[in-house]
Amino acid sequence: MNNKGIGAIFCLIAAILISVYYLTAAIFMSNVTSWNAGLFAAGLEYEGPLLLMAATVALVVGILFLGYGVFQDIRERMNHK
User: Fold this and answer.
1) CA separation (Å) from 20 to 50, 69, 77?
2) Which residues, at least 6 apart from 28, have a Cβ–Cβ distance to it below 8 Å?
3) pTM for this one?
4) Tens of pLDDT, residues 13-46
5) Non-local CB neighbours of 9 within 8 Å, separated by 6+ positions
6) Nearest to residue 55, comparing CAs of 24, 3, 16?
């Protein structure tokens, strides 16, 4: 698998982790009778920072792999000319 494919997979992992972060907060808050931003923020705080940190790391790694893959393609095209 090339670097662009690996980068895309890491970006997908980051998107899934961010989705799970918000979904778990929504599931945690499902028994609340009324919703507001403060309660949802409390639900997000209850989750902790682990999912967001993992998503951030996966996104950075994915962007780096994507960038390196594009850089390799550009360098390869310049060498063939």
Assistant:
1) 11, 28, 40
2) 43, 46, 47
3) 0.85
4) 999 999 999 999 888 888 888 888 888 888 888 8
5) 62
6) 16
